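Table 4 source record.
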Amino acid sequence: MKSKITIPKIQKMKAGGEKIATITCYDFSFAKIVDQSGIEIILVGDSLGMVIQGEPNTLPVTIDQMIYHSACVARGLTVPHLVTDMPFMSYQTSLKDALQNAGRLMKKGRAESIKIEGGVEVAELIYRMNRLGIPVMGHIGLQPQSIHKYGGYKIRGKTFEEEKTLLEDARAIEEAGAWGVVLEGVPREVAEKITKRLKIPTIGIGSGPECDGQVLVLYDLLGLDPEFQPRFVKRYANLFETVSQALNQYKKEVKEKSFPANEHSFRKNLIDAKDKFHTRNALPRAKGANG
């Protein structure tokens, strides 16, 4: 059995030059699959607002929704380190609110780290959380919670001033005690500079291969939405087509009355004590640190 992935182990991977695989996941069933893959980090992202809820951006997501999805994912894990996003306005209003919400994510959502967006402006918050035993992962570059400030989902770091700001932000959150940082939508050359200057791991999305690790949304990697094809996503499967074919076949068999067949039905005179109607609640589940 593989051992539990911890923050010190992830940091040692950077020191040893081993790349870090991260996946964004939102539910128990997929979490169980990711758990057996050997992937080191699972992120429960506030991107669930777009992927799961169908919202145009991440801003409507609430702390209660993040707690719910984080707990769902945690129940399926034994190995990966679980990081959960703090959603918009769950940490920006006051230090008291930020600490209470982070504590709820860890107590009720079973998160092992929390992730917040921002650089210099959140360094003091990261410092306070870290001092109180709340592990924090940073997030700079394209910040989805600030889309209205920047006028949409735009690459950050294209100009000299933006690059300088990113380098300052990265250094500030490292010094504040963040154990790692996500670099989203950062030019490859800038992400490389940041990665080389930091002692903490950088996890890139759309920021080039020089980052210490990479993160993709599981739904994107599996090709579940054929309309979503950004440049930074590589599809490793086409589950949209697979699922569509399965549903069409199911519908066809129901219409033709070939499903359910005898093997899918209970017969009164053939039922014995071992032939029970199992619900999903009766199936075995992963048991580990989050079990």
